[in-house]
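Table S2 (text version). Query chain:
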Amino acid sequence: MLLRTYPCQGVLCLAESDEDRLTQLAAVLAVGSMAIWPANSAVMLVAQLPDAVSQWIRLVDDWTIANFNAVLHHGGEDGFRQVQDKISERGTPMIGLQTIRPGSADIRLDVLVVERPSDVEYARDWKFV
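Corresponding structure-token output:
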């Protein structure tokens, strides 16, 4: 069976600082995905970015109902537990959930992609997320 790697359809990026937000954005863009940012914390930063970059960011008022299947969280353990709880209430499939220490650029890109069969015989029975 042949597998191909595809970017997640949307990656929720949660961070306290603009530096961490930009680090997350670099990772999301590296895999070719769309960044989902909470509007209340990122509107001013998006306005400062070039159009070629900001077109890959979708601002949402309520991230708990946004369409994403991976999460990057820059923050502490307590915040991560809260995010986990809210995501588990959604009942939708998740490909990856990753927490990163504030200020760190250590983001695993494999969490932001999914492998899917590219062989026609296998692909017809595959359930895409």
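Notes on Table S2: Residues 10 and 96 are 11 Å apart (CA to CA). Strands lie at 3-7, 11-14, 35-38, 57-60, 70-74, 96-100, 113-117.
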